Amino acid sequence: MPEGDTVYRATARLHRALAGKSILRSDFRVPSLSTVDLAGYAVAEVVPRGKHLLMHLQPPATADPEFNQPPLTLHSHLLMEGRWDLYGQGERFRRPAHTARVVLSFDGVTAVGFDIAQVKLVPTAEETQLVGHLGPDLLGTDWDAPLAIENFRAHPHRGIGEALLDQRLMAGVGNVYRCEVLFLTRLHPLTPIGQVVNLGKVIEMSQRLLEVNKDRPRRVTTGVARTREPYWVYRRAGSPCLRCGEKILLLKIAAEDSGLERDCYFCPSCQPARNT
Ligand SMILES: [Zn+2]
Description:
Blueprint: H1 4-18, E1 25-28, E2 42-49, E3 52-58, E4 72-77, E5 83-88, E6 100-106, E7 109-114, E8 118-123, H2 128-131, H3 145-153, H4 160-163, H5 175-184, H6 199-213, E9 249-254, E10 261-266
Antiparallel strand pairs: 1-6, 2-3, 3-4, 4-8, 5-7, 6-7, 9-10
The chain binds zinc ion.
Pfam families: Fapy_DNA_glyco (PF01149), H2TH (PF06831)
Family: Belongs to the FPG family.
InterPro entries: FPG_cat (IPR012319), FPG_N (IPR035937), H2TH_FPG (IPR015886), Nei2_N (IPR044090), Ribosomal_uS13-like_H2TH (IPR010979), Znf_DNA_glyclase/AP_lyase (IPR000214)
């Protein structure tokens, strides 16, 4: 699953290349959208919403306003493998063509969405049906820390490690940041939210890590001076803790809603379980 900062960067790149440009040809290789033709629509902006990428499209102008098409939102969720690439005129795809799901051709540039698991097209007015379930966006213009804290507090019995990945509470944290934030706030992943006294700090740390990394090509949570070891605990099971030397452990935590298990890395010495 990409982290919020990955989607933010992908979005910024698309926005720079496409904003203001009109679509010359569109080719949707997903059954539900195979007959859609977006020729004439112009890209107003490309914005991130948590891990979702939203392309806002303005309809072509018509002589008679009565025949105006509504503004549309092209929504894509990159999930594990998905990505958007940009190609110049005549340039060959750098990925297998059969994995292309959406091909949007503009004057001089083509945007291709590869392996995108979810792609939807809705009137922009109905966009909230797609992303309205998301909690406050850590990198959004409407970021709301008190609301995020309130959302977590409403689930006192859930483990903080499990809840941090729940995009309905707060949008943008993936597995890397989940592990790193817990290390930096010295919390055992299974600590029930009701026992997390420094919840505000957890939220603040999540926001800060995404913010400092959002324009960096390489993600680092240990500080720029430590780029050889970019993470404190993520994917470091069995290696010594960079702070105390204890062996980093791995815990599988199932998501409450999907049951999907994700690896969670932590230092048993820096992040001790509290028996209360
Ligand atoms: Zn440690």
